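Example for tutorial group B:
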């Protein structure tokens, strides 16, 4: 069994401020260890369930947050950013049996995490897919579906875990933190790791096929920018049109077109 893990940072236990997710800030060091602790726990659960190969994408910020020697020897670690439109799911292909999303967070315009956002929090108010506000879980789940790989585990804040369960009740979730205004209420580091390890094991003992999310036939991508000039600039991307001072839209039958647009206009 071959497992792919996409690991973000804003949904880790204890993360409350953007300083803690920025590798140039002193607060980052502890939470880099926590990111590694939670990713390693997911790996251990997968190995206990029979996984033989695990690929982990450091999918936050610089892509250089996870501490390599804190992960099991079976892991192949993807650091940095290649520029491929799969982005947080770089190197995912049909050879994988399942996807884990670790440290994920609530979407833009939600209140379940002080750092709630989708994609680029500095540039965008929100990303909408087929008329619904989209999270990174939604966008990356569609990428997994493009490669016909089921997302079986989501860990992070309560908001994103609730969304994952509503999207597909067969997805196993492990909420380790909850946002209240600009504060968080989180499990302790070791407790979060224990919860994630057990959830990872459980997720691979169920029916993986039940977690597969079929793609819709068509896609409407709508981007709401914080600055009107960014929307104007994005409107020149092939197929993209401006529908308001801050908004652009792209309509397509291919999900890869959505990913390619996000790579170049965000």
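The residue assignment follows.
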């Amino acid at each position: 069994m071959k497992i792919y893990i996409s690991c973000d940072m804003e949904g880790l236990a204890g993360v409350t401020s953007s300083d803690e997710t920025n590798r140039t800030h002193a607060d980052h060091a502890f939470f880099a260890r926590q990111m590694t602790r939670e990713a390693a726990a997911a790996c251990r659960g997968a190995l206990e369930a029979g996984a033989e190969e695990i690929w982990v994408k450091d999918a936050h910020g610089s892509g250089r947050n996870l501490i390599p020697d804190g992960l099991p020897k079976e892991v192949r670690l993807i650091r940095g950013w290649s520029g491929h439109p799969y982005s947080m799911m770089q190197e995912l292909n049909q050879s994988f049996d399942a996807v884990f999303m670790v440290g994920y967070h609530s979407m833009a315009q939600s209140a379940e995490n002080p750092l709630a956002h989708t994609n680029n929090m500095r540039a965008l108010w929100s990303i909408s897919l087929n008329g619904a506000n989209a999270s990174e879980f939604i966008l990356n789940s569609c990428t997994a579906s493009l490669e016909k790989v089921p997302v079986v585990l989501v860990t992070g804040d309560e908001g994103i875990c609730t969304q994952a369960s509503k999207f597909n009740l067969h997805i196993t979730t492990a909420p380790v933190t909850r946002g209240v205004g600009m504060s968080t209420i989180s499990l302790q580091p070791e407790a979060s790791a224990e919860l994630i390890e057990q959830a990872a094991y459980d997720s691979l003992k169920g029916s993986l096929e039940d977690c597969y999310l079929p793609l819709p036939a068509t896609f409407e991508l709508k981007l709401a920018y914080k600055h009107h000039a960014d929307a104007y600039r994005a409107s020149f991307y092939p197929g993209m049109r401006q529908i308001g001072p801050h908004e652009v839209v792209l309509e397509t039958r291919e999900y890869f077109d959505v990913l390619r647009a996000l790579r170049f206009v965000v």
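The mean pLDDT is 97. Compare this with the pattern of hydrophobic and polar residues in the output above.
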